[in-house]
Amino acid sequence: MPENPQKNFTGKIVSITLAVTGLLIITSIIIGGALLASRKWDPTWNPFRPKAESRLPGTY
Fold first, then answer.
1. Helix (H) and strand (E) counts for the chain?
2. Which pLDDT tens digit goes with each residue over 31-53?
3. Which ranges does the record mark as transmembrane (predicted)?
4. Nearest to 47 by CA among 31, 35, 59, 60
């Protein structure tokens, strides 16, 4: 029995939407990590931020 063309089209739209969403999420994670590592974006919770002890030795 042949498939419903509307169902096939909807399935393609859903798979394309999921693929694009996945690519956007992965790209955002990579760009965010690069910004944190390069310290172009340096929030206080940045895991790549050097500790105060290593920046100012002898003050503690």
1. 2, 0
2. 999 998 888 888 888 888 877 77
3. 13-37
4. 35
